[in-house]
Write a structure and sequence with these properties.
The protein is of the alpha/beta class. Helices cover 33% and strands 15% of the residues. It has one domain: Aconitase, domain 4 (Alpha-Beta Barrel). The protein has eight helices and seven strands.
Length: 169
C-alpha cells in the first residue's frame, strides 16, 4: 500500500483535467487521474492505496468525474484536513470513502502504512504507531459507500437488500 500526499486546494481540474471530461468511462478517467499534479500517479497507484491531502481537497468545479477517477484507481480512502463540500457529497454519491482529520494529515508521510475505518473514524499510522480520530461517517452514508454509490444503494433499497455499513477500508 502506498500513501500519496498532496497539499491544500487540490482542485477537481487537477484530480481529473478538464481535457478528459469528454470521457465518462471510469477506466479512461483513472488513466489520467492526478496527472497534472503527479504525472506518475495513474501508473503507480494500486488498489488499497490512500490519498492524504490538506485543506479544501476537491475545490473547483462540481463535476463528479473527480471522485469517480479516484475510485476507479481503486484508492481505498481519501483523508484530508477538509473537503470542498460539493466534492464531499460527490464522493459519497459515487462510493469513495473519505475522512476529515487534520491531525492524521499532519501525522502521515509518504512511505507510511495507514489503515482507516470509516465506521469508527479510526485512522492508524502503522509505521509510527500513532492513532487518530476522525468523525466516523454515519451508518446511512457508510451504506451508500458500501453499496458502491448512491444509485446502487437505491437499487438495493428497492429490492429490500441490506448492507452492514461496517465501513473498514
Amino acid at each position: 500500500m502506498s500513501i500519496f500526499v498532496y497539499g491544500d486546494n487540490v482542485n477537481t481540474d487537477v484530480i481529473i483535467p478538464a481535457r478528459y471530461l469528454v470521457r465518462s468511462d471510469p477506466a479512461s478517467l483513472a488513466a489520467h487521474c492526478m496527472e497534472d499534479i503527479d504525472a506518475d500517479f495513474a501508473q503507480t497507484v494500486a488498489p488499497g492505496d490512500v490519498v492524504v491531502a490538506g485543506q479544501n481537497f476537491g475545490c473547483g468545479s462540481s463535476r463528479e468525474h473527480a471522485p469517480l477517477a479516484l475510485r476507479a484507481c481503486r484508492v481505498s480512502c481519501v483523508i484530508a484536513k477538509s473537503f470542498a463540500r460539493i466534492f464531499y457529497r460527490n464522493a459519497i454519491n459515487i462510493g469513495l470513502p473519505i475522512l476529515e482529520c487534520p491531525e492524521a494529515v499532519d501525522g502521515i508521510s509518504p512511505g507510511d502504512r495507514v489503515t482507516a475505518d470509516i465506521a469508527t473514524g479510526r485512522i492508524e499510522n502503522k509505521t509510527t504507531g500513532r492513532v487518530f480520530a476522525a468523525r466516523p461517517l454515519p451508518p446511512f452514508v457508510r451504506g451508500i459507500i458500501d453499496a458502491g454509490g448512491l444509485l446502487p444503494w437505491i437499487a438495493r433499497a428497492e429490492t429490500g437488500a441490506s448492507d452492514d455499513g461496517e465501513g473498514a477500508v
